From TrEMBL:
Coiled coil regions in record: none
The species this protein was found in: Hymenobacter artigasi
Family of this protein: Belongs to the peptidase M48 family.
GO BP field: proteolysis
Upper classification of the organism: Bacteria, Pseudomonadati, Bacteroidota, Cytophagia, Cytophagales
Pfam families reported in the protein's UniProt record: Peptidase_M48 (PF01435)
Residues covered by the Peptidase M48 domain: 69-253
Keywords: Hydrolase, Metal-binding, Metalloprotease, Protease, Zinc
Single GO molecular function: peptidase activity
Stated name of the protein: Zn-dependent protease
Length: 265
């Protein structure tokens, strides 16, 4: 009986797989786009309400300018791939959160983006900011948040459907969502895996190039990030993230493809 139940559960999970837009990688998907976008919008409003938001008009204008250019590039790319339906329900927003200690940015499903002021000294300019924002937006359009939410539902809540998980354990499910979307990643839970990071780097290079930003800037950004990171960080084989050295090498291999999309501005 136990073997039969295990087989049934395995078949159910297999049937819940989908493919990553563009790359075609198979991923677990227990949450519909409409469910994940609605949940993301709710969580985003709560995070933004807590703020505090940056009062620098220069910072806000730069983030929104870069974000809107990448948004246009993403929409163009998906249209060219006859996959505009993958962006159904997106309602883009770009905000800057005042926190100089947080060297972070994220994009929730549905195009809800936040950039922390702490990362701006590392990005330095619009091109550096485009590296970060295109990478985070790539996570969203590749449905990595939904994938991680699905993994969390299996690991922490026994594979419950999202609606059931919210009704029976709303606080835990909402916290799971924030972790899945990359918010509060300092908690160390549900970090993006190497496949997801590599996909976001790859797609991000294309999106920033299409938006008119030089994709070669990704190399210098990650070199700056590497110089600032704690030298006591764990070795690559103990981390879900590729090391900066590996990431830079991967990006260098992908740059020739990205440069084909770069026309400059």
């Amino acid at each position: 009986m136990l073997k039969k139940l295990t087989l049934v559960a395995s078949l159910a999970l297999l049937s819940a797989c989908s493919t990553v837009p563009i790359t075609g990688r198979r991923q677990l998907s227990l949450v519909s786009d409409s469910e994940i976008n609605t949940l993301a919008a709710t969580q985003y409003r709560e995070v933004i309400a807590k703020g505090p938001l940056s009062t620098s008009s220069q910072q806000v204008a730069m983030v929104r300018t870069v974000g809107q250019r990448i948004q246009a590039a993403v929409e163009t790319y998906f249209r060219q791939q006859n996959a505009s339906d993958q962006l159904a329900g997106y309602q883009w927003e770009f905000n800057v959160i005042q926190d100089d200690k947080q060297q972070n940015a994220w994009c929730m499903p549905g195009g809800k983006v936040a950039v922390y002021t702490g990362i701006l000294p590392i990005t330095q300019d619009e091109n550096g900011l485009a590296v970060v924002m295109s990478h985070e937006i790539a996570h969203a359009v590749a449905k990595h948040g939904s994938e991680r939410m699905s993994q969390g539902l299996v690991q922490q809540l026994g594979g419950q459907a999202l609606s059931a998980a919210l009704s029976t354990n709303a606080p835990a499910t909402q916290q799971l969502a924030l972790q899945a979307f990359g918010v509060g990643s300092q908690l160390g839970l549900l970090r993006y895996g190497r496949n997801q990071e590599s996909e976001a780097d790859h797609l991000g290079l294309i999106f920033m190039a299409m938006a008119g930003y030089n994709p070669d800037g990704a190399i210098t950004f990650w070199q700056r990030m590497d110089a600032r990171e704690n030298q006591a960080s764990p070795p690559e084989f103990l981390s879900t993230h590729p090391s900066n050295g590996t990431r830079i090498a991967d990006i260098q291999r992908e740059l020739p493809e990205a440069r084909k999309y770069y026309k400059g501005r």
